[in-house]
Design a protein that fits this description.
Blueprint (H helix, E strand, L loop, with lengths): L1 H6 L1 H10 L3 H38 L9 H27 L3 H6 L3
Helix pairs in contact: 3-4
């Protein structure tokens, strides 16, 4: 998220110059962080589920690992919350950018 903010400094400055409020920019980057966490969590869950099924199938009659719906929700929620927490600081940095300074910045 830090790279996403630093790569889009001019875009953020333009949004703020046109009239976006600090809360709008903050909300946008927090939603992006949460969405990245959701996608990563789902991909990780699917890979983990596949590996678990493979291990259970190769172990014989009784399964070694059990995946419950409660565990599924917990895993995906954890990924989203962790990504959102990691996105708070970059989102605050983006929201507090001065539009004039941001538009003058060259990458």
């Amino acid at each position: 998220m830090i790279m996403a903010v630093s790569e889009r400094v001019r875009e953020i400055g333009l949004k703020k110059a046109v009239g976006a409020h600090t809360g709008d920019v903050l909300r946008e980057y927090l939603m992006e962080a949460g969405l990245i966490g959701l996608i990563g969590g789902v991909i990780g869950y699917v890979l983990g589920f596949g590996l678990t099924e493979l291990i259970n199938a190769s172990s014989g009659a009784s399964p070694l690992f059990l995946i419950t719906p409660k565990l599924t929700i917990l895993v995906i929620d954890f990924a989203v919350v962790l990504a959102s927490l990691a996105g708070v600081l970059p989102a605050l940095r983006a929201a507090r950018l001065d539009p004039v300074t941001a538009l003058r910045t060259t990458n």
